[in-house]
Amino acid sequence: MNPRIEEKQSGIAIYWGTFDPVTIAHFEIIKSVLQSNFKKVIVAINDNPSTEKIYKSPGESRSDMLKIMALSLPRKDHERLEIAIQKNKEMEYTNIKKAYPDEKVTAIVGQDSFEKFGAHCKWCDAVQVVPRGEKYDALEQQIAHFGLKNTFILPMDKRFLTTSSTAVRTAVNTNNISVLSSSLHPKVVSYINKQGFFRGDFTSTDHQKLRVFKNWLQKRKWQKAHVSPKP
Fold it and tell me: Less Cβ crowding at N or C end of the chain, within 10 Å?
């Protein structure tokens, strides 16, 4: 692991992601960040419809999956964790900094995003990059290339370096038990199966429409059962 890890600190941490679905690796990252003794750790679930991203499950459902896993956290960590859904740009770094002007704000950034936007990290108070794979040397070189003195690699267990939400969605669709058991919390697997997520080509929008229809159908059934017919 990279020896240049920032020591324990106060302040605010913000970790962005689609979490579609939330994996054990995602949760290990959250726990690792919580161990850094931040006053607050914000997990921002990207659900912005204006991006080119095609979400496979609704943002509210991804929030539910995270909350299911967060139940296992100690109370002191649970109280510091905030799970938010970003529908626009309200959880961008500059807005979080405005909300907490007197706090050091640390951005938690995935390696894929860092490779695209690393040059912008120089404007942050601090950055921790979540590695993908085991190419630490290449990641170190990128940090040096951007001339970043505020950026460090978040230590990660090697078991989680290759976990992929894309692979997990495929595993759900093909019922690959091996991948599911190693990548998802059992209660998250149960939740996904109950909601019917990641089957076929259904998107978040499809599931939201289906949910509206089911709610309407239940309301109609209730009305027929409780409203007396006119004489």
Answer: C
